[in-house]
Amino acid sequence: MSNVFVLDHPLIQHKLTYIRNKNTGTKEFRALVDEVSALMAFEITRDLPLEEKTIETPVTEAVTKVISGKKIGLVPILRAGLGMVDGMLRLIPAAKVGHVGLYRDPETLQPVEYYVKLPTDIEERDFIVIDPMLATGGSANDAIHSLKKRGATNIKLMCLIAAPEGVEVIQKEHPDVDIYLAALDERLDEKGYIIPGLGDAGDRLFGTK
Ligand code: PRP
Ligand code: URA
């Protein structure tokens, strides 16, 4: 079954409080999501494999370490996932970025896919799917299916906030996908919003309503 990691670093938790606050405006919200994404990238890459490399320092020869293994692909779920891309790219600048466009039908809460564009070398990459919110789990579930259908084999899911309902869906549908969160909240309300959550992530990031 997928592991669930709640990244409890004090900087992540502190910034998340301001992200949740309804009095935080668009500009600050965007900056905070960017900062937390970079901090989460630091944690989610903790298990990247290393290999030894021999180099010359100005003083002597030294055997040091570099990252080995597959390259990374980031896949934000449009649109709110876009707010997390730049923060992650600051730490993983060589990552390629694919996009999966999905929105939740407000009546049925079912995800509707409208765009998929992934790096061409899918088999050579480990993927991190990113979206601030894991609510019913429908969108992330669909995005992961989309990636797997196209040949992705190693996938992690990174979200700011999840509801237990969404985590359960991913664990059932994708037991191979580990989940990285800044917070695991209480539940969903009748409209599929996460309680306490942060409201509508896309609207708060882009200033729409
Ligand atoms: C939000 C959010 C997730 C989805 C989560 O996107 O960014 O993609 O809802 O909900 P789920 O787990 O129940 O599927 P939304 O559908 O509002 O689209 P947007 O990013 O274009 O605003
Ligand atoms: N999507 C959001 O943006 N917020 C929620 O609380 C649930 C889904």
From TrEMBL:
Cofactor note: Binds 1 Mg(2+) ion per subunit. The magnesium is bound as Mg-PRPP.
Annotated Gene3D superfamilies: 3.40.50.2020
GO cellular component: cytoplasm
Reaction catalyzed: UMP + diphosphate = 5-phospho-alpha-D-ribose 1-diphosphate + uracil
UniProt keyword annotations, A-Z: Allosteric enzyme, Glycosyltransferase, GTP-binding, Magnesium, Nucleotide-binding, Transferase
GO molecular function, one term: GTP binding
Activity regulation text: Allosterically activated by GTP.
Chain residues that bind uracil: I194, G199, D200, A201
Residue sites binding 5-phospho-alpha-D-ribose 1-diphosphate per the record: R79, R104, D131, P132, M133, L134, A135, T136, G137, G138, S139, D200
Top-level taxon of the source organism: Bacteria
Recorded metabolic or biological pathway in which this protein acts: Pyrimidine metabolism; UMP biosynthesis via salvage pathway; UMP from uracil: step 1/1
Top EC class for this record: transferase
Record-level GO BP terms: UMP salvage; uracil salvage
Domain Phosphoribosyltransferase: 6-208
Cofactor(s) demanded: Mg(2+)
Record EC number: 2.4.2.9
Cited NCBIfam families: PRK00129.1 (NF001097), upp (TIGR01091)
Role this protein plays: Catalyzes the conversion of uracil and 5-phospho-alpha-D-ribose 1-diphosphate (PRPP) to UMP and diphosphate.
HAMAP family per the UniProt record, alphabetical: Upp_B
Protein family membership: Belongs to the UPRTase family.
Protein name listed in UniProt: Uracil phosphoribosyltransferase
Organism of derivation: Gracilibacillus dipsosauri
Gene from which the chain derives: upp
